[in-house]
Design a protein that fits this description.
Blueprint: H1 3-41, H2 48-138, H3 141-150, H4 153-162, H5 165-173, H6 177-189
C-alpha cells in the first residue's frame, strides 16, 4: 500500500466518524424537538404539574429580579441623598470659609489701626513727658526739689532720669537726704538687670 492510499483510507474513516456524529446529533435534536411539540400539543389539563413547574421558576426569577432591582433603586436613592447632604455641607463650608476670610481681613485691618493708634499714643505720651521734663528743668532747682519730694519716688526718678545730669543734680541737692537717696537707688537699679557684654 502506498502512503497516498493509507492517507485516503484514514481520511475516509474520519469522514465516516464525522458523518455518524452529525447524524447522531440531528437525531437527538429531532427527538428533543418532538418532545417539545408533544408537550405543546398535549392539553394543559393532562399536565397541570408540568405547567406549574415551568411557571414557578420564571416567577421566582422575576421575583428575584424585582427584589434586586428594588434594592439597587433604594441604594441609588441613598447614594443620591448622601451626595445631596455632602453638597449642602460643602456649600456650608464654603460660606463659613468666606466668613472666616472676611473676619481675618477685618482683624488685620483692626490690628493695623490699633498699631497706628498705639504708635500715636506712644508718640503723644513721649511728647508729653518730654515737655513736662523740660518744664521741670526750667524751674528753679529749690522749687523743683520741693515738688519732686511730694511725688512718688518711682515717678520722680523717671523725670530725673530724663533730665540733663547738671539739672537733675541741682534738684536732688535741694531735696531731703532720705528722698534723694531713695530716688538715687531707683535710678541706679533701673538698669541693674540689663545683660552685660
Amino acid at each position: 500500500m502506498s502512503k497516498v492510499s493509507i492517507i485516503a483510507k484514514k481520511g475516509r474513516g474520519t469522514l465516516v466518524i464525522l458523518s455518524f456524529l452529525f447524524i447522531f446529533s440531528a437525531g437527538i435534536r429531532i427527538f428533543l424537538g418532538a418532545e417539545q411539540v408533544f408537550a405543546a400539543v398535549t392539553p394543559n389539563e393532562e399536565k397541570p404539574n408540568a405547567v406549574k413547574e415551568e411557571a414557578s421558576p420564571v416567577t421566582a426569577s422575576d421575583a428575584k429580579l424585582d427584589a434586586t432591582l428594588k434594592a439597587f433603586q433604594e441604594r441609588e436613592e441613598r447614594v443620591q441623598l448622601k451626595e445631596r447632604q455632602i453638597e449642602r455641607r460643602m456649600k456650608a463650608l464654603r460660606i463659613i470659609e468666606e466668613e472666616v476670610d472676611q473676619k481675618l481681613e477685618q482683624l488685620k485691618a483692626a490690628e493695623t489701626e490699633l498699631r497706628q493708634t498705639l504708635s500715636l499714643a506712644s508718640t503723644a505720651a513721649e511728647d508729653d513727658l518730654t515737655r513736662l521734663t523740660a518744664v521741670y528743668e526750667n524751674m528753679k532747682p529749690k522749687t523743683a526739689a520741693a515738688l519732686f519730694e511730694e511725688m512718688a519716688p518711682d515717678f520722680a526718678a523717671g523725670f530725673l532720669g530724663r533730665m540733663k545730669p547738671e539739672t537733675a543734680a541741682a534738684i536732688m541737692a535741694g531735696m531731703k537726704p532720705g528722698s534723694a537717696y531713695t530716688i538715687s537707688a531707683i535710678l541706679a537699679g533701673r538698669n541693674a538687670n540689663v545683660p552685660k557684654n
